[in-house]
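new request in #modeling-help
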Amino acid sequence: MLLLECPCCGQRGEETEFHCGGEAHITREGPGADDAAFENYMFERVNPKGVHFERWRHVHGCGKWFHAARDSATLEVFGTYAAATHRPPEELLETIRAKRPGFKWRELA
Amino acid sequence: MSDLSGPTPVLALGGAAFDGYVRVAEEPLRAMFTLRGDLSAKALKNAATGLAAVDMPGQGQVALNGEHCIAWMSPDELLVMTPWDEHAKALGQLDATLTDPALNYTDVSQARALFSLSGPDGLVREVAAKLAPVDLSPAAFPAGSFRRSRIGQVSAAIWMPAPGRIEVVCFRSVADYVFTLLRDAARPGSEVGLFG
Ligand SMILES: [Zn+2]
């Protein structure tokens, strides 16, 4: 069971109060993109064992979207942060580096 | 009221009630309004406090006085309730106060169902805790707390107007489902003693 804290309303709840919206920080390629970039956006997703970044929605709560960083193997939640950002906050990355030395996720490490 | 206001509203379950180890009851109709916009905007605050005559609630809180209340729903949403007989007056007041297009309201009075759980404080908390994944211990959920979550499989909001009483609001379309769950949770013999 995941325990998530919604950064929008401050409520701490377990995962059935939320809904996962898939991988975080995906660049949505537009009509100008080449086939490879569009294919990557459309189909390519990581499925790591360990540190993972996702979008979540507080569906039975305040209704807002946000981001979460968690460990897909232990279900530890490292932190949650605002939806409107391209990158996790540096402070959160520091926390993850301390807990999971040498972690890699896409271009983040 | 003109004919345009439609037929006299009826409760979803006709005021159903069940006396279990706590009492579960459908509450009389209240006027309910969702107010959306910047919660720090003066016009929005005035609209809410003007209807309910209570202070603005803090995050995760409900400010109330009897059937009048303002509940904090999200960073840009309030739920304001008044007794039903103030409904028509409230609509006029909201139209007059919320003139900024970035601030708006919806009348949700007949889109919601409202239930109460009443009885010994620990048991009332326990019945709600059987159905919602929320820490309802007295320390985590004191009187005045307001929490949106789920009851069984549907969205609901739970708040504690006073010790020994919890009120639950859900979509009217699932009123029967929620009442049935609450009734089952309050069935005599199913006490857990979770909160002493
Ligand atoms: Zn939330």
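bot summary: The longest helix of chain B spans residues 42-52.
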